[in-house]
Design goal:
The chain contains 11 helices and 16 strands. By secondary structure, the protein is of the alpha+beta class. A hairpin with a 2-residue loop joins strand 12 and strand 13.
Length: 401
């Protein structure tokens, strides 16, 4: 369990119970209860084989204001056809009946093995237990309850002053493998008691995901189940933030961004078998999109990632990845690359003062930055990734055993 402090969000109660969804002795069903009048917005995976709960959550979000979020681990309920859809709907019905709300007010989420069906008895047992144990302080237990191959729960929290009122932002996330969000087995749930208009909330969750969860990659695989939800309970005693011009909007957005980025980086740091956290910063590109394409090509390269694991300053692998990035034009003679503060490439060739020993010293660190300057144009982007270790193969080879 993390030792850092996180803060309850007025209007949110949570519970995580051991229901035996797949394996006994672990928290595997999580319920969020949202105060009446809360507003919710979300982004979901773009994988065309999106899971049944993703389809249902998107549908319910368009029909009603959610009162409950229901998350299970163990089974992703993706690639399960009509029966998987029916069972996901049944879990919403079960919670609605127990909580006294409409099924459309329940958003379901699942994570785990693709292509296998869960059974309903664990939900019949677990949902009543969860509703009986709802607690505003249970963020840590909820973070544990949504884990799959994660090695630790991921929670982030901030408090800020808005118009003389203290407001809270707290969130949890899960993810360690099959991580290349594209809205991603990533789930994120962030809540604040600040009152935010629905239109602004919908805009912000997309913008926040784009600068956080959509900038991380562990293995380049976009999951079937990814979702990120942002909740405003409106419990804080202050006027509604209706648009980005509100005098407190920038302060709140910054707090939200800090939480989103911290959670996204925690996913990378907990990447399956990861031993290195790597920030790839690209500048001087013709556009931000070009910069991101270059950063992601480097981040996805198995050869770069295995060199990182080996602490091997094989800079030719980085250079090769830059050269194959899917951008329209690249002046190779203008490319500069740094490992940390050590310049390894200057004007497309090895830097005059570069030595293998200096490069190896940077690569031996647990946190590494790779800076790539393509030229003098204004485009830039940052992506966070990790290395590939022996354990990544072992974890995924043994995932279903």
């Amino acid at each position: 369990m993390q030792t850092q402090q996180w803060f309850p969000v007025p209007g949110v109660r949570l519970a995580a119970v051991q229901a035996g969804v797949k394996k006994p002795g672990r928290r595997d069903i999580v319920v969020f209860e949202l105060a009446e009048g809360s507003r919710t917005a979300g982004v979901f995976t773009l994988n065309r084989f999106c899971a049944a709960p993703v389809r249902i959550a998107r549908d319910h979000l368009g029909k009603a204001s959610p009162r409950y979020l229901l998350i299970n681990t163990g089974y992703a309920n993706a690639g399960t056809g009509d029966e998987g859809h029916r069972r996901a709907v049944a879990t919403c019905d079960l919670l609605a009946q127990q909580a006294g709300c409409q099924a459309e007010e329940v958003l379901p989420f699942s994570t785990g093995v693709i292509g296998e069906l869960f059974t309903l008895p664990p939900f019949e047992r677990g949902i009543p237990q969860a509703l009986d144990s709802l607690d505003e302080h249970a963020w840590g237990q909820a973070a544990e309850g949504i884990m799959t191959t994660d090695t630790r729960p991921k929670v982030a929290s901030r408090r800020v002053q808005l118009a003389g009122t203290e407001v809270t932002v707290t969130g949890i996330a899960k993810g360690a493998g099959m991580i290349k969000p594209n809205m991603a087995t990533m789930l994120g749930f962030v809540a604040t008691d600040a009152p935010i208009a629905q239109t602004l909330l919908t805009h912000w969750v997309k913008a926040l995901a784009d600068v956080s969860f959509n900038r991380v990659t562990v293995d380049g695989d976009t999951s079937t189940n990814d979702a990120c939800m942002l909740v405003s309970t409106g419990q804080a005693d202050m006027a509604e933030i209706a648009d980005a011009d509100h005098p407190e909007a920038a302060t709140l957005y910054h707090a939200l961004e800090q939480v989103f980025v911290e959670l996204a980086q925690a996913i990378v740091r907990d990447g399956e078998g990861a031993t290195k956290f790597v920030e790839i910063d690209v500048s001087g590109a013709a556009s931000d999109a070009d910069a991101r394409a270059v950063a992601e090509t480097v981040a996805h390269s198995p050869l770069v990632k295995t060199a990182l694991f080996a602490s091997d300053p094989n800079w030719g692998r980085i250079l090769a990845a830059v050269g194959r990035a899917p951008i329209a034009a690249l002046d190779v003679d203008a490319v500069d690359i740094w490992l940390g503060e050590v310049q390894i490439v200057s004007r497309g060739g090895v830097a005059a003062d570069y030595t293998e020993a200096r490069g190896a010293a940077v690569m031996a660190q647990s946190d590494i930055s790779i800076r790539i300057r393509l030229g003098d144009a204004p485009g830039s982007a940052t992506v966070w990734t990790c290395d590939f270790s022996y354990d990544y193969v072992k974890i995924n080879a043994e995932y279903r055993t």
